[in-house]
Amino acid sequence: MIKANIWSGALALVALVSLPLQAAEPVKVGSKIDTEGALLGNIILQVLESHGVKTVNKVQLGTTPVVRGAITAGELDIYPEYTGNGAFFFKDENDPAWKNAQQGYEKVKTLDAQQNKLIWLTPAPANNTWTIAVRQDLAEKNHLTSLADLSAWLQKGATLSSRPPPNLSNARMRSRPLKKPTASSSSKVSCCRWRGGDTAVTIKAAAQQTSGVNAAMAYGTDGPVAALGLQTLQRSAGRTADLCPDPRSARSGAESLSADCAMAAAGLCQP
């Protein structure tokens, strides 16, 4: 598993503060629309149901703004979110706290509790931030192991065709630091974007050179990267926010409920 050092963000569950754990109404479980969101959302469903908690399946509800809006509006009770996205939610991306996993978690946990009555549960020990993956043959031929290498290569006249997933536009604070190393050679980079493609699709496109694509935006925890013959490029430490997966809950019983959900998320992200 790759642990990228971007905005410091872990995956955690987020829950609303409203109903006790054993409430008669079922727990509305949501997730983002991408592959990892679907996987984590279904794990949460299974954990809750195995403990006798009734659920409503709203997994793969939509992109980050859609799911965020749903939980703040009370349409969801719990879903997995990334701690580093607090920089985006609270329009505070310049705070260095987001580049430290623990500080970012404490900050978003406090802000969401105060402003939205949302509970962030214990985050998973993984950094699911954005990274750039290039074809292995391209990396080996041109000695590309880092974004600095990529920038130098592009400045020599090389060209790169990449494919970003749709959720990238909803997480601009994560992608902006990735642009800096290649800013001087951005004219050498072309982007192909297909509707409905998450990172599973972008990675496959780079591996198969669809439409000439030879690079893709990927998550730090994307397993198919190595399996499909791609290589992620390293970046300078502290350049971007850590994105640690975290269960976020909106129920008052979330503290007792969260232990099982957090363990499920953490177990998924262990090396």
UniProtKB/TrEMBL annotation:
Keywords: Signal. Residues 158-190 are annotated as: Disordered. One of its GO terms (molecular function) is transmembrane transporter activity. Residues 158-172 have a biased composition (Polar residues). This is Choline-binding protein. SUPFAM superfamilies: Periplasmic binding protein-like II. It comes from the Bacteria. Residues 1-23 form the signal peptide. The lineage of its organism: Bacteria, Pseudomonadati, Pseudomonadota, Gammaproteobacteria, Enterobacterales. Residues 26-249 form the ABC-type glycine betaine transport system substrate-binding domain. GO terms for cellular component: ATP-binding cassette (ABC) transporter complex. It holds the Pfam family OpuAC.
